Amino acid sequence: MPSILALQGFAERRVGSVQREYTEWILILNGRYLHAVLDTYTDQSASADC
């Protein structure tokens, strides 16, 4: 089981990636839209990691 520090580092890198790649061109209108954007990003980054 991963440690809390490892998970925190992973989360911080993901947030940093989202900030760098998406906030330059996307306007988040509400919480539902934010979740949809993050789900799409996660799916795309997971398929790119394979």
**Overall morphology:** globular
Structural class call reads mainly alpha
Tell me the count of domains: 1
- Head-to-tail CA distance between termini: 21 Å
Beta-strand residue percentage: under 5%
Mean pLDDT, to the nearest integer, reads: 80
Main sheet, how many strands, which sense, barrel? none
Helical proportion, percent range: over 70%
Give the strand tally. Answer: 0
Element order, helices and strands? HH
State the assembly state of the protein chains: single chain
**CA radius of gyration:** 12 Å
Protein name: Integrase
Organism: Streptomyces aureus
Description:
- The chain contains 2 helices and no strands.
- The model has no long low-confidence stretch (mean pLDDT 80).
- Helices cover 76% and strands 0% of the residues.
- It has 50 residues and is an all-alpha fold.
- The longest helix is centred in the first third of the chain and has 19 residues, at 4-22.
- It has one domain.
- This is Integrase.
- It comes from Streptomyces aureus.
